[in-house]
Design goal:
Length: 206
C-alpha cells in the first residue's frame, strides 16, 4: 500500500486542478450571463434574449441618453459671454462749465413769492435739495432769458416743505424754482445746489 501511494503522488494535484478549472468556467459563464441579461440591455439597449425588455432595463438606457444633453447644456450656459456695454463718449462726459456748490437762504412773507434760478448752458446739470419751515407751492421751470414771456415747466406741486432731485438744462437760459407762501406766517427756505452752472441768481418777482 505504501509503495503504491508513493508511485502516484500527482493524483491529489490533478483533482485540485480540475476543481479550479470548473470554478473558472462557471465564473466565465456567470459573467457572460450577467453581461447579456443585464448590462447590455441597461447600458447599451442591446437585448438579444428579450429578458432586459421584460425587466424594464432597456428603458434605463433611453433615460440615460435623454439626460445627457441636459448635462452638457449646463457648461454652455455657464460659459456664456457677459453682455458688453459700449464705452461712454468723452464728449458726453466732459463739462465746459466749471463745477460749483452753493447754498442760499431766504424768507418768504405770507402770500408772497420768491425765485432762485441757475444760469446754464444746454447740457449743464446740477443736483439740489431744499427745505422750508412751512409748506409752500413750488413751480420748477426754465426760461431762455430774464425777459422771456414763456417758460418750460418741469415740476409743479403744492404743500411741499422739502424736495430734492437733479436737472439737466434742455436749452440755454435760466432754470430753477418759484416758491409761494400760501400761509399766514413767514417761511424760511434753504436751497443747496452743486453741479455745472454759471451762478445762482434771484430774479425779481412781480
Amino acid at each position: 500500500m505504501t509503495s503504491q501511494t508513493l508511485l502516484n503522488p500527482t493524483i491529489p494535484y490533478q483533482a485540485e486542478g480540475s476543481t479550479i478549472l470548473r470554478a473558472t468556467a462557471a465564473a466565465v459563464v456567470a459573467g457572460a450571463a450577467i453581461l447579456t441579461l443585464f448590462v447590455l440591455p441597461a447600458e447599451y439597449n442591446i437585448d438579444p434574449t428579450g429578458v432586459g425588455h421584460k425587466l424594464g432595463l432597456t428603458a434605463l438606457s433611453g433615460a440615460m441618453d435623454d439626460a445627457e444633453p441636459a448635462a452638457t447644456a449646463a457648461p454652455t450656459q455657464a460659459a456664456a459671454a457677459p453682455v458688453k456695454v459700449g464705452p461712454q463718449s468723452r464728449d458726453s462726459i466732459i463739462r465746459a462749465t466749471p463745477y460749483r456748490e452753493d447754498q442760499m437762504t431766504l424768507t418768504i412773507a405770507p402770500h408772497a413769492g420768491a425765485e432762485i434760478k441757475a444760469e446754464m448752458q444746454t447740457g449743464d446739470q446740477f443736483v439740489f435739495s431744499w427745505t422750508a419751515s412751512g409748506p409752500v407751492k413750488m413751480d420748477m421751470h426754465g426760461e431762455t432769458s430774464m425777459t422771456a414771456s414763456e417758460a418750460t415747466t418741469y415740476w409743479k406741486e403744492k404743500g411741499l416743505s422739502a424736495a430734492q432731485g437733479s436737472l439737466m438744462a434742455p436749452f440755454n437760459g435760466i432754470h430753477g424754482w418759484y416758491w409761494r407762501n400760501q400761509g399766514e406766517t413767514p417761511v424760511t427756505l434753504t436751497l443747496k445746489t452743486s453741479g455745472f452752472y454759471r451762478k445762482l441768481i434771484r430774479p425779481p418777482v412781480n
